[in-house]
Amino acid sequence: MNTQETKQQETEVWWGGYSPWTMTPSFSVAIALTGVIVWWGWNFLERGDIRLGILSLTGFVWFVQLLRFGYRFFGANYHLTTRRLMQETGLMNKTLRMVWLDKVESVVVERSNLEEFLGVGRVVIQSVEKEPPMIWKGVRNCNAAAERIRVMVEKVQSK
């Protein structure tokens, strides 16, 4: 390796996070649950209690759903640089996990049929060091992200 390559700065090649599309099924459940709550309230609550009952229950459902969405959307960031992979998780107590590209053993995409339909999935990165794999969850266009990682790994490991 020449001195110019060692002085080359680390630059970001790809950045991503948890895609909102990943939560489509749970948003669908929240919408259906809202419909059930409205139906239940309309048919089984006293006239004066309908508004309070429906607002309370649907408010709780959507509060929980939006908390889950916020935590996942704002609490997961994935970075590919010219030297390493990084996974940042959490909102208040952020954790950072890194894997050097020269230590990557395999990059695999996992997704269910529904995730494939939605265009999202998980990128599983296994390092040669026998620690648990790094899993990037909810990645939009996960095949393209995995391929970009593979290209960078090959580039680094061939030097």
Polypeptide structure, described:
With about 160 residues, the chain is α+β, with helices and mostly antiparallel strands. Helix 2 (about 25-45) packs antiparallel against helix 3. Helices cover about 45% and strands about 30% of the residues. The protein folds into 2 domains: about 15-20 and about 75-155, Pleckstrin-homology domain (PH domain)/Phosphotyrosine-binding domain (PTB) (PH-domain like, Roll); about 25-70. The protein has 5 helices and 7 strands; from the N terminus they run αβααββββαββα. The chain has a 4-stranded antiparallel sheet.
List keywords for this structure.
single chain; alpha+beta; PH-domain like; 4-stranded antiparallel beta sheet; 46% helix; elongated
Overall mean pLDDT: 92
Indicate the multimeric state.
single chain
Our count of domains comes out at 2
Q: Which fold name is given in CATH as the topology of the largest domain?
A: PH-domain like
Q: What CATH architecture of the largest domain would you give?
A: Roll
Question: What is the SS-derived class?
Answer: alpha+beta
Largest sheet: 4 strands, antiparallel
What's the CATH C level of the largest domain? Mainly Beta
| Tally of individual helices | 5
CATH-defined superfamily of the largest domain: Pleckstrin-homology domain (PH domain)/Phosphotyrosine-binding domain (PTB)
- Rg over alpha carbons: 22 Å
Shape: elongated
Quick rundown:
With 159 residues, this protein is an alpha+beta fold. The chain contains five helices and seven strands, in the order H-E-H-H-E-E-E-E-H-E-E-H. The protein has helices spanning 3-7, 24-44, 50-74, 113-118, 142-157, and strands at residues 12-17, 76-81, 84-89, 95-100, 104-110, 120-127, 134-140.
